[in-house]
Design a protein that fits this description.
With about 45 residues, the chain is mainly alpha-helical. It is about 65% helix and about 0% strand. The chain is globular, with a radius of gyration of 10 Å. The two termini are about 20 Å apart. This is HTH cro/C1-type domain-containing protein. It comes from Streptomyces tunisiensis.
Length: about 45
Amino acid sequence: MCDRSGIDVVSCSRIEQGHSSPLFDTLIRIADAIDVPLADLVR
């Protein structure tokens, strides 16, 4: 997911572990990378 979204591994790890909250544009990139609508991702 990190490669596909263009987010560095450290940032991905921090988001996945709940140590960091992603910005809105980062959420969009993650949703696109995993092919999920943004609304489903943040639900």
